[in-house]
Amino acid sequence: TETLAIERLFAMQVDGMIVSTMDYARAEPLLSSMQAQGTHCVVAGPAYPGIPFDAATINDRPAMRAVMEHLFALGHRHIGFIWGAPAFQAIGARFEVFRQELEAAGLSVREEWVKRCGFRLEDGYAAAAALLQMKKRPTAVFALNDLLALATIRAARDLRLDVPGDISVVGADNVQLAMSFCPSLTTIDQPIEQYATELTRLALSGIEKKTPPSPAARKSAAAASSAAGTTGAAGKALRWTPERVELTAGFLVRESTGPLVRQSGTR
Fold it and tell me: Torsions phi, psi of 101, nearest 5?
């Protein structure tokens, strides 16, 4: 489990740790304890409000809006969504933008066109095959990540559907295979290298500055500072605030999306 992995790294007495968790609420107490004991923790992932750690996130909401605007401009109004566990905040955020953009266009989410599955190729294939074999199927599909999108293209081929003639497909992440696949995949472009650089910078910077004291220690320091009427080391500790870095994802249009040509099965 995530908790066990974090505990094992802490037992190795690491100076810093970059953590990407799917359950921040569960991980937060452990990370706070580790940070109080000298391990600098950096959180990678969604912008969890009020977290007491340095953190970096990728905002892909603008890119998700660009996806929907692109599909609308091509004439698509029947759009499906293939995704994973909604408990993961980044996943829920993408679906929320999907819903909002449909509503802004005077449309609504059709629950039968929303398929939840795992994150593997075989999961995506099964979900896409079920979606594309419906009597009334969408003309475009957004998949949560590129693996699920590529699996959707494979399922379409096996069902003798043309991409993008019969079905347009969009993914997210811009993995290496997305560009070389045939057809090449329209996708959300995550700035992964820049993201990794920022996370590493935050970790090394925190280690160099030393991990800030725990909340209890800061409270004690505040009382001592107030009583003494000074702003010495205690005052400096109180002024520490976590650093936040937000990067923005892009959107790449490739061959897997095209104008609405045929609408068979959607009426």
Answer: -70, -35
Q: Domain check: are 69 and 48 in the same one?
A: no
CA distance 169 to 139: 9
> Does residue 135 sit in the same domain as residue 15?
no
Task: Return d(Cα 35, Cα 2) in angstroms, integer.
Answer: 17
Are 96 and 177 in a shared domain?
A: yes
Give the number of other Cβ atoms within 10 Å of residue 10's Cβ. Answer: 17
- Please report, in tens digits, the pLDDT of each residue of the chain (267 residues total): 788 998 998 999 999 999 998 778 888 999 999 999 999 999 998 877 788 999 999 999 999 999 999 999 999 999 999 997 655 566 788 899 999 999 999 999 999 999 999 888 999 999 999 999 999 999 999 999 999 999 999 999 999 999 999 999 999 999 999 999 999 999 999 999 999 999 999 999 999 986 455 555 545 544 544 554 544 444 444 456 899 999 999 999 999 999 998 655 553
User: Based on the domain organization, do 80 and 33 belong to the same domain?
Assistant: no
Cα(153)–Cα(127) distance, integer angstroms: 12
| CA-based nearest residue to 171, from 70, 21, 56 | 70
Q: Does 202 lie in the same domain as 187?
A: no
Instruction: Print burial letters for 196-222: b (CB count within 10 Å at least 16), e (below 16).
Output: eebbeebbeebbeeebbbeeeebeebe
Domain of 29, in residue numbers: 2-58+192-215+234-248
Q: Output the pTM of the full model.
A: 0.84
Together in a domain, 153 and 81: yes
The answer to whether residues 91 and 210 belong to one domain is no
